[in-house]
Amino acid sequence: MATLRELELRLKSVKNIEKITKSMKMIASTKLAKAQRAMQSGKEYGLANSEIFQHTIAEEKDASKKKLVIVVSSDKGLCGGIHSSVSKFTRRALGQTGGEEPTIDPESPIAVIGDKSKAQIQRVLSKNLTLTFNQIGRDVPTFADAASVADLIQKSDVKYDSIVLVHNKFVSAISYEPTSVEVPNEAQLKESAGFRSYEMEDDVTKDLAEFVLANAIYSALAEAHACEISARRNAMDNASKNAGDMIGALTMQYNRGRQAAITNELVDIITGASAL
Amino acid sequence: MSATWRSVFTYNKYAQITARAVRNSLKETERVAAEKRGLTTVRYQHWENGVGGQQTVLNPELEKAPGKPAV
Questions:
Q1: Cα distance from A1 to chain B (closest Cα, Å)?
Q2: What angle in degrees, to the nearest 10, is found between the helix axes of B11-24 and A143-155?
Q3: How far apart are CA A45 and CA A215, in angstroms?
Q4: Is residue A243 part of a domain?
Q5: What is the ipTM of this complex?
Q6: Which residues are bridge partners to B64 per DSSP?
Q7: Residue A184 pLDDT
Q8: Among A3, A34, A74, A262, which has the highest number of CB atoms less than 10 A from its own CB?
Q9: Which InterPro entries match (chain B) (predicted)?
Q10: For residue A207, what is the nearest residue in chain B, using CA coordinates?
């Protein structure tokens, strides 16, 4: 049973925490509307991509193809399980969580967008890391961000046959789940049946491969941003509720303690008075 | 005759340059709104064998050290 002084201090600090989490929840709620609108328009880019792939890429599940994994998350925390969900998905795909067959070659290079996931992946798969990016996700991601990321990946000498984009899918305002999207590279596009039958020029195919990558990254970034904000809103909502419960319990304890102290003093006074 | 820019930079960089030209040619009010869509403050880092390299900024002229907002 802590002293009254300690209880008072604890009560004050929990009240402050509740104020902070409440304001963070408000901020996240206001940001969510904008992020969701950006996600809707950003998804169109991803849909354009899948249209192209539907008509060109044949279904070849070849596990020996060299794949580059891009993990999309962000730099800020306090958003629930966003970063660990994509990191876990990646680790599971590469066979790092014991007991499951890897769906991707465990030696695949990994590029990470976002500091939080970078730290998590670095702990387990640091040999696979090739490129990391940060300072994305503070505000709604722009196509310029996605184009810069795609540019840097192409300029670096990472060899890959296709790219796997791991990000969080926005299922609803209270739930999300990690998914992956596959993006072929220039050579794969060239060899696909659709492209060959149209005699596409090499220059145009190269441009398309680069643009398709930027598209996919942009769509993933927009969706991940919306997921993160909604997760932060939910996390701060839960935190505020928990803080409110704690404040109730602590206030009860404090009042009981206070009344016990008063009762003791009264008893002392009365026994002292009766002794006279 | 294929364009000569392909040997210098990627299509994405080409698109960003043309987009910047279009944005700069807009009317003042629209231009201010469009400028935000062209902003990127990405930093990157190459990794070798589990060791990170230098953190480099892509657009150093945009680093004006603004205050960090709360989440």
A1: 37
A2: 150
A3: 6
A4: no
A5: 0.79
A6: none
A7: 85
A8: A74
A9: ATP_synth_F1_esu_mt, ATP_synth_F1_esu_sf_mt
A10: B11
- pLDDT average per 10 residues of sequence, chain A (276 residues): 87 96 95 93 88 73 75 91 93 79 82 92 88 88 91 87 92 92 83 78 86 93 95 95 96 95 95 90
A78 contacts A236 by C-beta, under 8 angstroms:
yes
B2 lies in the same domain as B23:
yes
Please give the full DSSP string across A237-258, using - where no structure is assigned. HHHHHHHHHHHHHHHHHHHHHH
Residue type, A58: A
CATH number of A26's domain: 3.40.1380.10
CB-based burial of residue A246 (10 Å sphere; 0-12 exposed, 13-18 middle, 19+ buried)?
middle
Same domain, B28 and B51: no
Tally the domains of chain A.
1
- Domain holding B64, by residue range, is 41-71
Q: What's the predicted TM-score (pTM) here?
A: 0.87
Within 8 A of B65 by CB-CB distance, chain A residues are none
